[in-house]
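hey m, so remember when u said the C-alpha cells were messed up on ur end? i reran from scratch. heres the input so u can diff it against urs
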Amino acid sequence: MMRATSRQTCQLWLILLSFGAAMAPLGCVSDAAYADESGVSYWLPGRFSSLAAAPAVPGWSMAEVYYHTSISAFGATAAAREIRVGGIPRTVNVSLDLHLNAQADLLLLNPTYTFATPLLGGQFAIGVTGLFGRSSADLNGTLMAGIGPFGATRSGSIGDSITSVGDLYPQATLKWNTGVHNFMTYVTGDIPVGAYDPNRLANLGIGHGAIDGGGGYTYFNPQAGHEFSAVVGLTYNFKNNYTQYQNGIDFHFDWGASQFLSKQVFVGLVGYAYQQITDDAGQHPILGGFRSRVLGVGPQVGFLFPVRDMQGYVNLKGYGEFAAANRPAGWNTWLTFSISPTAPTSTITPTRPIVTK
C-alpha cells in the first residue's frame, strides 16, 4: 500500500489527474491497422485507458506516442481489401482464399489545453491529435482485378507501403470530480486530410469523416494506490465519397486498472472491446453486413518524474487481440511520453494537520 502525508497525497492526486487528461485524447487510425470498410475503422481500440476521466491541472500539456501494430486477416476481411484496391464490381464473384498482413509505425502528437474556469461545474479541455508514420501491407492468395463488369484472376501477392501524414482528430472533454469518483463526457471525430488513395493497399487516412461521443468513469484512491477507468462510446461514420461506401455505427469500450507501487510507479492491466452494431452500406454482396468485432487485453506500466518546473510521465502498454470478426487482428503497443503543468502547492490544503518533530 502506498503511504504519504496528506499534502503529498493531494499533490500526487493533482499530478496524476493531469496525466489522465493528457493521455485520454490519444488515438489514430491507419489503413494497416484497423476495419469497417476494408476492415478499417475510425476508432482505434485502446485510445482510452487508466485515469481517462480524471481532471487535469489547468494549462497546456503535450503528449507524444509511438504506436506499433502488427496484424493479419483471412477470408472475407482480406477480400474486402482486395475489392477496394481492385475496384471489383458487385456483380463479380470474389475468392476468399486470401491472406492479409499489415504493420504500422506511427508517431502521434497531442497538444491539449485545460481551462481553469469551470464549465457546467466541470473542467473543460480541448485538443487535437495529428500523426506521421509508415504503414505497409501485403495480400497473398487468389487475386482478382475488375475489368468493367468482368474480373481477371491470378495466384500471387501484392504489397504496398506509405510514409506520410494521417488525418486530424480534434477532441473536447468535460470532467467532474467528487472525491475518489471522476466522471467524463467527450466528443471527438475525424477530419479526413491524411494520405488516402482508394486504389492503394496501405493508407494513413480513412477517406471519410466521422464523429464519436461517449462517457467515462475513473475510480482513483491515491492513498491506497487503487485505480480503475472505463470509457464507452459510439462512432457515426460519414460516407466515403471515393468509394460510395459507408461504415455502420460502432460501439467501443476501453478500460484500464492499475496499482501504484509508490508515488512514482504503477503497474496494471488494460483492455478493450469493439463491436459494430449496424451493417455497412455499399459493400460487395459477398461481404454481407460486414460487422466488425475484436477484443484485446494486456499489461501496462507507468512512471512519473519531474521535468524542470513541469511533470513528466512515461507509460508503456500492450494489447493482444482475440475473438476478431471482419477485421484484422494481432497485437499493438503504445509508448507514451507526456508533459504537463505541476500541481500548484500553494493552493493545496491538507485534509488533516501534518505533525512533524
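this time it looks ok to me. The helical segments are 6-23, 75-86. if urs says something different then somethings off w ur setup not the seq
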